Amino acid sequence: MDLVERYLQAVRFWLPKSQRQDISAELAEDIRSQVEDQERKLGRSLTEDELASLLKQRGSPFSVAEKYQPQRALVGPGLFPIYAFVLKLAGLVYFIPWLVVWLGLVIFAPAYRAAHPGWSLLGTLGTFWSLAFFSYGMITLSFAVVEQVHRRVKVQGDWNPRRLPSVRDIRKISRFSSLTTAVFDIIFLFWWLGGLKFPVIMLQDKTTWSWTAGPVWQGFHQQMYWPIALLALAAAGLAAYNLFHPSWNRLRMGVRAALNAVGAAVLLLGISAYSSGVQAQWLKMTSAHPGVPTLDAVRIWTNIIVFLSLLLAGIICLLTCLWLLWRVIRWKTLFPTIGRGLATLVLIGLMVLGAFGAQTPARSQTAVSSTPSNQEVRRILVERIHVQHRSEIDGSGSPRLS
Amino acid sequence: MNPDLFENLRLELRRGCLVIAVLGKLRSEHYGYALRKALDDLGLSIDENTLYPLLRRLESQGLLVSEWREEDKRSKRFYRLSPDGRLILGRLQDEWQAIDASLQRILKETDHGSR
Asked: Where are the domains of chain B?
């Protein structure tokens, strides 16, 4: 019976302390009864192999003891759906944008790549991982505490069916969303066309320092003047139309996808052509107290934020476009979808061509007769910087923010 | 088809039935091994790793009472139904009979429909 004692000792190790002796005594009695029963049938004592086989049939000591443990879960099934939802939300609103910006910097910012050569580029994700583990750990810990505290409280005990949200219609377009989109697109259009003059950055204070368009912004604005103006006009038109016809159809969804595609192309290709990455000078700061370290830091960080904002806007446009195209493709019937899809692709192609073929000869003396190469753009910008520099020295004026 | 599917469904079906069987058999006093044998002899075999935790759970819920007593010079734990357990068993029996009758009708109806 040494084998039985060893087995019981191993089971005891995993049993809950308060019931350890009681359970093991009952188990011992059950095993002895079973052994005696078998011995009675066989008319002889069990061999060690037979005893080992009998114990093996009962299961490993851990699996036997585990049945006596109370059911435990860090986050129980009642809270789990909310816990999973919060984790997804954290991923969606924080970690995915974080990763997208990081990828944007890696792809579109040569200076960033140069500052982190080779594998050290992956090292820059260290903060991301630390934050991700910390956040997910804190969320899990919080839910574990809630689980312990409210184990016996039914979370949704007092729910009211009348407060349930209305059935979601994926084709419905929010009128509020259409209205705000139309209004903001029109305001943006006026600002972009020069009808409205207000500071690009709200931190303007002419007594100490002020913002003006930097050379990169000027080049970008000049080259993208018509594409962005037409894009804003089309987006405002679509939003206005949606205001009176608040339900998506394939054509309008395709047009919206096309507008997003053009937006993504204009922003992503535009910033990659006109800036040299995060260090590009989009906005220029002139100050009565030059050389103040704080102001220099504000200038640098403002330009970085402008770059990242445009980059993020471009990526959001691209993702929205892909999502809308996916919805168009999955629309009920196949053949009309193919037709609409082809029409959408043609529209996207035309608008992209329009965006990069568009010229602005009437708006500037430096306008060129065809789309300039990167080298030509750089040459033009260098000339503009020299002109600005001379005008600042001569006191003949400051660069104009269009 | 998932090979474990039937086994999982079978275990799920048995889970509630075992409670009724154990409570029913403990209208008279039994110790663990004897209860297991008795159920097995009546065609409802139950694994010891299922039976003993179930007995403890039912006891903690107040449906069973137990005591350690010596029998054949060996200390054994004897279980029997408590007054609450008797009450619950009666209600569970009614419920079981209602379910059984409904299932009989449903399955009979399905058999007729499929023929």
From this structure: 4-114
Domain boundaries, chain A: 2-66, 80-157, 175-394
Using alpha carbons only, give the angle A392, A397, A401 rounded to the nearest 5 degrees: 105
Per residue in B49-75, pLDDT tens?
A: 999 999 999 999 999 999 999 888 889
Q: What is the pLDDT of residues A341-384, one digit of tens each?
A: 566 666 666 555 555 544 433 333 333 334 445 555 556 555 65
- Sequence-distant (≥ 6) Cβ neighbours of residue A152 within 8 angstroms: none
Cα dihedral B87/B88/B89/B91 (nearest 10): 90
Which residue of B lies nearest to A29 if distances are taken between CA atoms?
Answer: B76
Q: Which of A25, A33, A68 sits opposite B33 (nearest CB)?
A: A33
- Structure tokens, A381: 């910008």
CA A168 to chain centre: 23
> Could you report the predicted ipTM of this complex, rounded to two decimals?
0.83
A26 contacts chain B (CB < 8 A): yes
CATH second-level architecture of B4-114? Orthogonal Bundle (1.10)
Q: How far is CA A356 from CA A1, A402, B27, B31, in A?
A: 88, 20, 88, 88
Cross-chain Cβ contact A26/B77 below 8 Å: yes
